[in-house]
Design goal:
- The structure is a single chain.
- The protein is mainly α.
- It has one domain.
- It has eleven helices and no strands.
- Helix 5 packs antiparallel against helix 9 and helix 6 crosses helix 9.
- It is globular.
- The two termini are 17 Å apart.
Length: 232
């Protein structure tokens, strides 16, 4: 059975045994699976809870915001079509870079400290423990929206009011593509079109062979640039 088939068809127990060394960002787990939870009081726990529907909610929510921002840039900022296009494409590219940095240095950061371990388990550890469980693929927008606001403020400070809207629309669309592709990789045995097979294979290798490598999901570009794309 190929690694691609193992990633999709293997049962949860078999997968867990295969990549036990890969859990917790490459460090051995000391305990069994722990349901990811950072809030114990309502309504915060309910709002932050992992669900299968989170992917669709995130794509709809951030996709809608991105569309509104793009329309605002076109209708209110007096930008030429090529300026909007350039800013939008730059935003998508900026997302792929942010995706790589966040996945490598934030989601895979773990130390032997109770707070850090708990946060890591919530943000990414549970996903690596049971990659076939679609509940743990996408975080709730309740968690990601404050991060999205921080990014918008950062880009606004760098680009200014006139330019930030089209740029951030592309950034948001890049995020939506990431969530959809990531969800599809874990849900479907094979990509919908053959040219995406490389992304499927790359992410399965990240989960089942080299969790300290292959951090890109929507593209392998930044792994190749920064030396985290092994030739195996």
């Amino acid at each position: 059975m190929s690694l691609l088939q193992m990633g999709v068809r293997g049962d949860i127990q078999e997968q867990s045994q295969f990549f036990i060394f890969a859990s917790m960002a490459g460090k051995p787990k000391k305990e069994g699976f722990l349901y990811p939870q950072v809030f114990w009081k309502q309504p915060w726990e309910w709002l932050s809870r992992y669900r299968v529907v989170n992917t669709y909610v995130a794509v709809g929510f951030y996709g809608g915001i991105s569309l509104i921002m793009l329309l605002y840039a076109i209708l209110s900022q007096n930008l030429r079509w090529w300026e909007v296009s350039l800013l939008f494409i730059s935003g998508v590219l900026a997302w792929t870079f942010s995706e790589y940095l966040l996945h490598r240095f934030v989601l895979h950061y773990v130390e032997d400290h109770p707070i850090i371990l708990r946060w890591h388990n919530f943000m990414h550890g549970a996903h690596h423990d049971i990659p076939k469980d679609l509940r743990f693929v996408t975080a709730s927008p309740f968690i990601t929206f404050p991060i999205a606001v921080i990014f918008w403020v950062l880009f606004w400070l760098i680009l200014g009011w006139k330019w930030v809207w089209a740029f951030y629309a592309g950034f948001g669309v890049g995020y939506c593509l990431y969530e959809y592709i990531h969800h599809a990789i874990h849900k479907y045995p094979h990509p919908p079109v053959p040219f995406l097979r490389g992304l499927w294979q790359n992410h399965y290798l990240h989960h089942f062979k080299s969790p300290e490598k292959r951090f890109g999901v929507t593209t392998t570009l930044w792994d190749r640039v920064f030396g985290t794309y092994p030739n195996d």
